Amino acid sequence: MSIKKGDLVKVISGSKDKKNKIGRVLEIDSKSNRVKVEGVAPIKRHMKPQRNPKHPEGGIIEGIGSVHISNVMLMSETHGRPVRLGFSFNDSGEKVRVARGKNLKAEPV
User: Fold this and answer.
1) Is 95 part of any domain?
2) Which of 5, 79, 89, 104 yields a CA-CA distance of 20 to 30 A from 60?
């Protein structure tokens, strides 16, 4: 996968409340190809009081939902806009992620 944990991404498709939001990737699930982005797709769960050690009193527990990885695009901090990703090798032979697109130089992201 080209997107990694900690990357700044923009949601490019989905419902009105998710689309065009920008946030950092908190978690990636490679099996289901989904990412959790902070501030996008909040989830609320209503729990009864029970013996659960995390939430013994119950209440409304908030969490973060996931978005499919095809619906997010990496935000380039140097260019200030979403970019497509490519890979290149630098002088020392390391594989580096680079921004691809119209009017962009192949600079490391």
Assistant:
1) yes
2) 5
Nearest alpha-carbon partner for 22 in 34, 12, 9: 9
Between the alpha carbon of residue 44 and those of residues 24, 34, 37, the distances in Å are 20, 19, 16
Cα Rg of the chain (Å, integer): 18
Task: Name the pTM for this structure.
Answer: 0.80
Q: Above 80 in pLDDT, residue 104?
A: no
DSSP state of 108: B
Q: Which residue range(s) make up the domain with 48?
A: 8-100
- Is pLDDT at 80 greater than 90 in this prediction? no
Give the Cα separation of 57 and 62 in Å (integer): 15
Q: What's the average model confidence in pLDDT over 43-63? A: 87
Per this entry, what is the length of the chain? 109
Quote the CA–CA distance of 72 and 95 in Å, as a whole number: 22
- The number of folded domains in the chain is 1
